[in-house]
């Protein structure tokens, strides 16, 4: 364990995080800590949810952004700040700059979801759409900084940003002083490196230890290979619904802190993340974006050992309604509560009614039907039926499928 006397520790010291907390408290709210009966039963030990999805701007990002911007010199403040982001960092920087009376310019990729664009603008930032990826927007932000003298506010790889995010760790320990395990989403590593710095130093002073588990989306998990290689490694990612943590390379400072302080990094699938979002909505009544729900996904996937009080950080709640709709249907399908079937029917009267009857006999509910006579691969005497059915779990889903197959229907399970 590292402490203030350990000069090899690259991260922020506890005293500095405590000072940051005083600064950040002027803009950030103390977010609620909530228990979860459902997850407690599943894990076999107490689970708490740190609801940073209810933070101002909808995520923890204002902590780091505010701490970084407030530490700029007067000359730097006068020249303004610039950032590139497709989401929460943009809102955090825009909000923090407005609170400090500083001009903010945010570069966002073309095609960024409208709610995120509007929210960033609503905090008073100048938003410039540039490029088709965050990397392209980042290049544009760097050029802007060079041309205007504005300071770039990085999303994770800066000591002041890490220190600001660390304030969440101190707050969390005030709410659950005897936390045994803390589960935290990882993108570039800003949040977890800050929280781990705060929590591990505070716990060491109290002569105890706290386990820190990081969670990445399997489709964008640069930390496991980087930790194995002993240095940040750039990986090829694939799309993930957890867009907030879609990062292809760890931050340099963040990697160093995480290598020293984080006990374990696990990865979760898209299906687990969708299920987590649904559990949070239904059971905890919390609206959480996919990146903010990966900690719960890790519990659902059995990747976290319950050895005491476990705090899961819900790091953000900014999800646009269209994505929410898609994630909910994936989450229902992943929990075997939504079944999509394609059935080939002979084109004879009564076939559609017969399938509906069989589904009803299985006590399942049809939520959508599509009945087509034309289409590729269809014989003249055939009709294709697409049925969307609400089911109550794996056994019920199997029952519906078996009932239709036993009656001689040729079907394909789509979801
Ligand atoms: C909701 C949410 N959770 C977690 C993260 C983690 O990011 P990082 O590890 O880079 O701090 C992000 C990053 O934007 C985010 O938006």
Automatic annotation (TrEMBL):
Higher taxonomy: Bacteria, Bacillati, Actinomycetota, Actinomycetes, Micrococcales
A Gene Ontology molecular function term of the record: threonine deaminase activity
Query: Where is each ACT domain found?
Result: 340-415
Q: Which Gene3D superfamilies match?
A: 3.40.50.1100
By sequence similarity, the record places it as follows: Belongs to the serine/threonine dehydratase family.
Kindly state the subunit structure of this protein: In the native structure, TdcB is in a dimeric form, whereas in the TdcB-AMP complex, it exists in a tetrameric form (dimer of dimers).
Q: Which InterPro entries match?
A: ACT_dom, ACT_ThrD-II-like, Ser/Thr_Dehydratase, Ser/Thr_deHydtase_PyrdxlP-BS, Thr_deHydtase_catblc, TrpB-like_PALP, TrpB-like_PALP_sf
Q: What is this protein called?
A: L-threonine dehydratase catabolic TdcB
- Keywords on this record? Allosteric enzyme, Lyase, Pyridoxal phosphate
Q: Keyword Lyase: yes or no?
A: yes
By which gene is this protein encoded? ilvA
Q: Which cofactor does it need?
A: pyridoxal 5'-phosphate
Class of this enzyme: lyase
Looking up PANTHER family in the UniProt record yields:
L-THREONINE DEHYDRATASE CATABOLIC TDCB, THREONINE DEHYDRATASE, MITOCHONDRIAL-RELATED
Tell me the route in metabolism or biology where this protein functions: Amino-acid degradation; L-threonine degradation via propanoate pathway; propanoate from L-threonine: step 1/4
Pfam families given for it? ACT (PF01842), PALP (PF00291)
Under Enzyme Commission nomenclature, its number is: 4.3.1.19
The UniProt entry, under PROSITE patterns, shows:
ACT, DEHYDRATASE_SER_THR
């Amino acid at each position: 364990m590292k402490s203030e006397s350990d000069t090899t520790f690259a991260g922020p010291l506890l005293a500095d995080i405590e000072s940051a907390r005083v600064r950040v408290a002027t803009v950030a709210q103390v977010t609620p800590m909530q228990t979860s009966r459902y997850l407690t039963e599943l894990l076999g030990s107490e689970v708490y949810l740190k609801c940073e999805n209810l933070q101002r701007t909808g995520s923890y990002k204002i902590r780091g952004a505010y701490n970084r911007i407030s530490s700029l010199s007067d000359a730097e403040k006068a020249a303004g700040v610039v950032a590139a982001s497709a989401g929460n960092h943009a809102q955090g920087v825009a909000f923090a700059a407005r609170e400090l009376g500083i001009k903010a310019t945010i570069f966002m990729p073309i095609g960024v979801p409208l709610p995120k664009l509007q929210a960033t603008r609503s905090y008073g930032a100048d938003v410039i759409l540039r490029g088709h990826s965050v990397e392209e927007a980042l290049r544009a932000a760097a050029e802007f900084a060079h041309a205007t003298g504005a300071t770039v506010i990085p999303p994770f790889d800066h000591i002041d940003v890490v220190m600001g995010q660390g304030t969440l760790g101190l707050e969390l320990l005030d709410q659950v002083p005897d936390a045994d395990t803390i589960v935290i989403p990882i993108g570039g590593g800003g949040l977890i490196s800050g929280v781990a710095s705060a929590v591990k130093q505070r716990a060491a002073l109290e002569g105890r230890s706290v386990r820190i588990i990081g969670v990445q989306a399997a489709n964008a998990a640069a930390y496991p290979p980087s930790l194995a290689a002993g240095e940040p490694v750039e990986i090829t990612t694939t799309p993930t619904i957890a867009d907030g943590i879609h990062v292809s390379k760890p931050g340099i400072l963040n990697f160093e802190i995480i290598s020293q302080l984080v006990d374990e990094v696990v990865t979760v699938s898209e299906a687990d993340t969708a299920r987590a979002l649904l559990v949070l909505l239904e059971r905890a009544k919390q609206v959480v974006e996919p990146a903010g729900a990966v900690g719960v996904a890790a519990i659902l996937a059995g990747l976290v050992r319950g050895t005491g009080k476990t705090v899961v950080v819900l790091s953000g709640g900014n999800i646009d309604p269209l994505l929410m709709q898609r994630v909910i249907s994936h989450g229902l399908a992943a929990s075997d509560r939504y079944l999509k079937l394609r059935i080939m029917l002979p084109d004879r009267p009564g076939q559609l009614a017969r399938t509906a009857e069989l589904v009803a006999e299985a006590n399942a509910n049809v939520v959508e039907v599509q009945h087509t006579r034309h289409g590729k691969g269809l014989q003249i005497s055939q009709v294709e039926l697409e049925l969307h059915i609400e089911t109550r779990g794996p056994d019920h889903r199997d029952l519906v499928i078996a009932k239709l197959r036993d009656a001689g229907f040729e079907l394909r399970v789509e979801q």
